[in-house]
Amino acid sequence: MSGYDAIDRALLVALAPDPRATVVALADQLGLSRNTVQARMSRLEASGAFLSFERSMDPAPLGYPLEAFIAVHVRQKRLRDVVDEIAEIPEVIQAHGLSGAVDLLVRVVCRDAHDLFRIDGEILAIDGVERTETSLAMGELIPYRLGPLLDRTA
């Protein structure tokens, strides 16, 4: 983890299982002063070490219990425009550009199968989208995590 020293890495390791740990709890756990932890946390946050809090929110209580992945095939030279339009769809929670046969992998949440059909139709209607392939997520088997990487580098 270039750019992070031993204290930064120790803070990140301590935060992995408990991202809401207080500065006081982290200071006690790591044997550091509260001011040191606060300063390091501020610096880590400013450097972009932490992702958005939204990543930890569950969309199911908002009425979106289903999740799907839509592989999007885009006509050449239209990728930026297609991405801009896909970003306007509220149910799109993430998208990645890919190398290979698929151009974009779009992660969406939906209320039910009819809602997913509507969202897929909105994506298909975007000028530059050639076709989509939709897969309903059956369950998250390995949640987003960095703990094992942090353990390896600490």
Account of the 3D structure:
It comes from Agromyces ramosus. GO terms for molecular function: DNA binding. This is DNA-binding Lrp family transcriptional regulator. The protein has about 150 residues and is of the alpha+beta class. It has 2 domains: about 5-50, Winged helix-like DNA-binding domain superfamily/Winged helix DNA-binding domain (Arc Repressor Mutant, subunit A, Orthogonal Bundle), CATH 1.10.10.10; about 60-135, 2-Layer Sandwich (Alpha-Beta Plaits), CATH 3.30.70.920. The protein is about 40% helix and about 20% strand. The chain has helices at about 5-15, 25-30, 35-45, 80-85, 115-125, 145-154; strands at about 65-75, 90-95, 105-110, 130-135. It has a 4-stranded antiparallel sheet with strand order 2-3-1-4. Strand 2 and strand 3 form a beta hairpin. The longest helix has 13 residues, at about 35-45. The model has no long low-confidence stretch (mean pLDDT about 95).
Short description:
The chain is of the alpha+beta class and 154 residues long.
Provide the CATH superfamily of the largest domain: Lrp/AsnC effector binding domain/regulation of amino acid metabolism (RAM) domain
Reading off the top of the CATH hierarchy, the class of the largest domain is best stated as Alpha Beta
User: What is the approximate shape?
Assistant: elongated
CATH topology name of the largest domain, in short, is: Alpha-Beta Plaits
Count of spatially separate domains: 2
User: SSE order in H/E notation?
Assistant: HHHEHEEHEH
What's the story with the biggest beta sheet? 4 strands, antiparallel
Number of helices: 6
Low-confidence stretches: none
Q: What percent strand?
A: 15-25%
Mean pLDDT: 93
Distance between the termini: 9 Å
The proportion of residues forming helix, as a percent range, comes to: 25-40%
- CATH architectural label of the largest domain: 2-Layer Sandwich
Over the alpha carbons, how many angstroms does the gyration radius reach? 20 Å
Protein name: DNA-binding Lrp family transcriptional regulator
Keywords: DNA-binding, Transcription, Transcription regulation
InterPro entries: AsnC-type_HTH_dom, Dimeric_a/b-barrel, Tscrpt_reg_AsnC-like, Tscrpt_reg_AsnC/Lrp_C, WH-like_DNA-bd_sf, WH_DNA-bd_sf
GO molecular function: DNA binding
